[in-house]
Amino acid sequence: RVIEALAGLAAVCIARIHFEEEAQIARVAAESERLRTALLDSISHELRTPLATIMGAITGMIESAHVLSSEDQRELLSTVRDGAMRMNRLVTNLLGMVRLESGMLRLNKHWCDISDMIGVALGEVQDALQHRRVHVSLPDNLPAIYVDDVLLEQVLVNLLSNAIKYSPDGSEIYISAKCDDNVVFIEVRDTGIGIRPEEAERIFEKFYRSDTTRQIPGTGLGLAICKGIVDAHGGNIRAQPAKTGGTIFTIQLPADDAEHKENTGL
Ligand code: ATP
Ligand code: MG
Question: Is the pTM of this model over 0.70?
Fold first, then answer.
């Protein structure tokens, strides 16, 4: 009887473990389904909003072509361009994410000038700056670095567009770089709403968006891509709240590349 009772107890335990496992699997499936839906919602919203703006502006131009002043036309055309640029950034980020996740990210490295890369990135966000002032401070002896400039420009564009998006118009953005012990540091600091110290790492996770910025459009992909690209260069990127308010992002990159040295025998 004792053996039967023990066997019964064991059977109950096994059944309970089994049901708990099933419940756990169902929970995980529901969670990933919820994530997928949230992701699709946010991406389709992000794609549709600029598309709706573009279509609205173009329809306006077609239907009222005869009454529009050249000033109005210019304004509508710049609305179209802004919408297209916003879509372009999202599509670039989505493709970048796919490339990173599928292990298809190939670095096309050259010797690059840091100030040129900063210049290109600034050019891309120029129209979104409005009245924000950008201060760039670079030392004269900054070395060239052996990196994929197109990808690093994408990193800088993402950091700058965040600095713009999460700071009020008229505020200041500071970009600086320095080289210490064969390591190059590039810093982008804004004076905007800032991040909480406990979020400093999480914001680099894919699709993570802070509660404080929910009302500002975004997909939460930008920083995950920045991290993927910087990591692929053997560097690192981190964020911290600035003491004076706002956020500091620091990219750290090896100034010379061991692989390149080996190949060229330098
Ligand atoms: P997108 O994919 O369009 O870039 P996003 O800006 O929301 O969307 P990330 O760039 O990855 O995505 O940023 C993730 C989150 O980190 C943001 O939603 C925001 O909460 C926070 N964040 C990023 N940069 C800043 C910043 N400069 N100041 C304050 N918060 C920031
Ligand atoms: Mg962003």
Answer: yes
